[in-house]
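sorry for the late reply, my laptop died twice this morning and i had to redo everyting from scratch. anyway the thing you sent over, i finally got around to it. pasting the sequence first so we're on the same page, its 124 residues, then the predicted structure underneath. double check i copied it right bc i was rushing
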Amino acid sequence: QVQLVESGGGLVQAGGSLQLSCTASGLTFSSYGMGWFRQAPGKDREFVAAAASGSGTTILYRDSVKGRFTISRDNAKNTVYLQMNSLKPEDTAVYYCAASAGWASRWTNDYDYWGQGTQVTVSS
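ok and here's the structure:
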């Protein structure tokens, strides 16, 4: 069975940094595109960043995090990371890791598996 487990969330002041990790099991990690999404209270889940499988080079970010967030992956560890710098209160959300058997994209429907989420809270 496939399992994605996020970690690294927490409370940070505006301008601070956090690194999220997502470790996958039960799938061939290197063949999956990986994405990060987030959901704030009362809002829809929204795309944050995505990285193509090991055979690709595509990396995508939503405009509001460009220059602040970096997605990376370590296929040997079956892990994808989201380094978040210069955090803002509007980044506060539950962050979810997702795996796509197709390709990395900004659309939730393209992903086959999801983690349980990890809370990120940015205080002002």
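Residues 11 and 121 are 5 Å apart (CA to CA).
thats about all i looked at so far, will dig more tmrw
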